[in-house]
Amino acid sequence: MSMWNKFILAVRPRLGAGTRLLEREALAAKTTMRIGGPARVYAEPAATEDLRVLLLEADRRALPVFMLGRGSNLLVPDEGVDGLVVSLVHDHWQRFEPQPDGRIWAGAGLRLKNLCGRATKTGLKGFEFLEGIPGTVGGALRMNAGAMGGWMFDVVEEVHLMTMAGEMRVMSKTEMHVEYRICAELRDAIALGAWLRPAASAPADDIRRQIDVYQKKRLESQPREPSAGCIFKNPPGDSAGRLIDELGLKGERVGDAEVSPVHANFIVNRGHATSADVVALVRKIRARVKGERGLDLEPEVLLFGRDWRDLL
């Protein structure tokens, strides 16, 4: 009996009826790039205790665990992921709870679009920049997601998380080490949700007008085809998209993976791209930028279940 079969037999009787536990679950359709193979084991815990059961048993057996939000900032390998993939898509993780003191509790599974929309209806300003990011609160916390000059941790007061050993922790923003596209404390832990602080109260119509401005800007500057967002981190003081554009790489292709003609820091799936196509295109772009500008572009998109350093 394989280690994964033993894991499933050990956890299934201890999980609530609402939790899904599946083998060989396809992941491509759960990502914005629509690429990749299956998860060896896939789970959608319906409660905090079910998540703890999964993590404790995986930790006891030294099995790898990977979190999947909306799959908007990752590339799944063609062979899939040999690990436990956990997704907080159950309603339990999608709570939006405004408080009398102005704070908002946002569950890790809440979509950023829904967070922004519900905050707008409540007349709470400061989340508008998140509206067009196709992710969840948990993913935005892990990556300190940003857009339109705003960053996720600009609106965070406190994060509730669970370690991979099942330990619950509560951390204030001031205790956490947050940088460009990373929150160190969430590298090896799972965000369960966060207390957020809006910038101010405002009429809903005023907030919507600002959202409309951001939406228009995104429509004009970002591709509509399936992608994983910006593929590279910006070098200090520079723009990865500008560098790639200046080197004439817009439209460059490997298979059905293409450097977007709209935004050079996006690789889009033209229909049947594979993970191998994307990796080969990433290598080509990096080699060109290194050769002509002397810069090492670092991927911003996560290689799910793998390490970019093994492939670049």
Describe this structure as you would to a colleague.
This protein has 7 helices and 21 strands. It has 312 residues and is of the alpha+beta class. It folds into 3 domains: 3-86, Uridine Diphospho-n-acetylenolpyruvylglucosamine Reductase, domain 2; 94-205, Uridine Diphospho-n-acetylenolpyruvylglucosamine Reductase, domain 3, CATH 3.30.465; 224-310, Uridine Diphospho-n-acetylenolpyruvylglucosamine Reductase, domain 1. The strands form 7 sheets. Strands 6-7-15-11-12 form a 5-stranded antiparallel β-sheet. The chain has a 4-stranded mixed β-sheet with strand order 1-2-5-3, with helices on one face. Strand 19 and strand 20 form a beta hairpin. The longest helix has 19 residues, at 275-293. The protein is globular. The protein starts with a helix and ends in a 9-residue tail after the last strand. The mean pLDDT is 93.
Key structural traits:
single chain; 312 residues; alpha+beta; 3 domains; five-stranded antiparallel sheet; 7 helices; globular
In short:
The protein has helices at residues 3-11, 48-60, 112-122, 137-143, 204-221, 240-246, 275-293, and strands spanning 20-26, 38-44, 65-67, 74-75, 81-86, 96-98, 104-107, 124-125, 146-147, 150-151, 156-163, 168-172, 178-179, 182-183, 189-196, 200-201, 227-230, 253-254, 257-259, 266-269, 302-303. It has 312 residues and is α+β, with helices and mostly antiparallel strands. The protein folds into 3 domains: 3-86, Uridine Diphospho-n-acetylenolpyruvylglucosamine Reductase, domain 2 (2-Layer Sandwich); 94-205, Uridine Diphospho-n-acetylenolpyruvylglucosamine Reductase, domain 3 (2-Layer Sandwich); 224-310, Alpha-Beta Complex (Uridine Diphospho-n-acetylenolpyruvylglucosamine Reductase, domain 1).
